[in-house]
Each structure stands twice: as C-alpha cells, then as structure tokens.
Write a structure and sequence with these properties.
about 30% strand, six-stranded mixed sheet, binds guanosine-5'-monophosphate, globular, about 180 residues, three-stranded antiparallel sheet
C-alpha cells in the first residue's frame, strides 16, 4: 500500500447532523438528571466507539458522576458482526453497590451489550441502565433494553462521532454512512 492509499478516505454522507446529535444529547442528559436526582452514577464508556458521545454526555450531567472505561472488541476491521466479544480492557473499580450507566455508541445485533450486561450483573451493582446513541432495530439478535436512546436507524453501517471504519472517521462531528458498502 502506498502512503497516498493509506490516507485516501471516502467521504461519508451525513445521516445525523451535528446539531441534531447535540439537541438529542441534551434531552437524554436532562432525562438522566431527573431520573437519578442525587444518586451517584458510575458512567461506563464502552471503548472505543462511544468515547465522543460519552465525553459530550457526561458534561451535561449535573448528578455526581464517576467515570470508568471498558474496552471491548467484536468486529476487527469488518463491518459485519462476528458475534464474538472480547474484553480488551476491564473496569478498574469494583462495581458492587454502584448505579451503573453503560454508555454505548450503537446497539446493532445487541450481542455486545448482552455480553456486557451479563458480565456486570455478576459483580452485584445496585442498578444498571443503558444509554446508547444509536440502535438498529432490524439487526437485533439479542433481547436488550436501552433505557436512554438517541436515535433508531436502519441497518446501514455508520461512521463518525467516535465510530470508525478500519480505524478511520472517528473524528467526524456527524454520523455518516457510505452510499456503497465496503
Ligand atoms: P453489536 O454487538 O450490537 O452487533 O455491535 C456493537 C458494536 O459494534 C458497537 O458498539 C460498535 O462498536 C460496533 N458497530 C455496530 N454497528 C456499527 C456501525 O454501523 N458502525 C460502526 N462504526 N460500528 C458499529
């Protein structure tokens, strides 16, 4: 691969513009602030795709928040789910007695979230809720509840606002898609 191939990237189309993401995010944060009132939240960022959503969301929370990070990988560089979930970095803190708010970028098959929920339940938290920016209802294979949902989308592969394709596009401020599949 020449260095120009490495840096040549296809331009995605806008699916959800930045302003719509930020509006919806404020609504979700408001709901979370009301629901938790003075209950401390342990917000868990599912790496890597949700890091930008997580950073924007927690800055709009006015309840006491601590942050932790869980690294999972399920896709490698492919754009279809392998169904396999691997924990690449575990949570640093004990979860017992904590009110967990899992922050995901996107629930596609739901297998990743189902795996994470099962794993966390064994650690005896006081409660677990899920906040996801996106959900693909047509792709769901596992039964999972998303308590705070940004947007439902179709089954297209999306990038931007933290989400990648082969490591690229995470820095786009909007959620985008490609007209032709990779
Ligand atoms: P699931 O286990 O629900 O099929 O997939 C969950 C994870 O796969 C997400 O957290 C995300 O990292 C990745 N994923 C699923 N769909 C997409 C997509 O359309 N675009 C990108 N970039 N990642 C996706």
């Amino acid at each position: 691969m020449s260095s120009s191939d490495e840096f040549s990237v296809k331009q995605p189309k806008v699916l959800i513009p930045e302003v719509k993401i930020q509006q919806r995010l404020s609504e979700l944060a408001q709901e979370i602030n009301v629901d938790y009132a003075n209950k401390p939240i342990m917000a868990i960022c599912i790496l890597r795709g949700s890091f930008i959503f997580f950073a924007d969301l927690i800055r709009q929370l006015d309840v006491p928040v601590t942050c932790d990070f869980l690294g999972v990988s399920s896709y490698g560089n492919r754009s279809v789910t392998s169904g396999e979930v691997k924990v690449t970095m575990d949570i640093a803190e004990p979860l017992e007695g904590k009110h967990l708010l899992i922050v995901e970028d996107i629930v596609d098959s739901g297998l990743t979230l189902a795996y994470i929920l099962n794993m966390f339940k064994t650690r005896r938290p006081a409660s677990i809720k899920v906040c996801s920016l996106l959900l693909k209802p047509e792709s769901l294979k596992a039964t999972v509840d998303v308590d705070y949902l940004g947007f439902k989308i179709g089954s297209e592969f999306v990038v931007g606002y933290g989400m990648d394709y082969a490591g690229k596009y995470r820095n786009l401020p909007f959620v985008g898609y490609f007209e032709h599949d990779h």
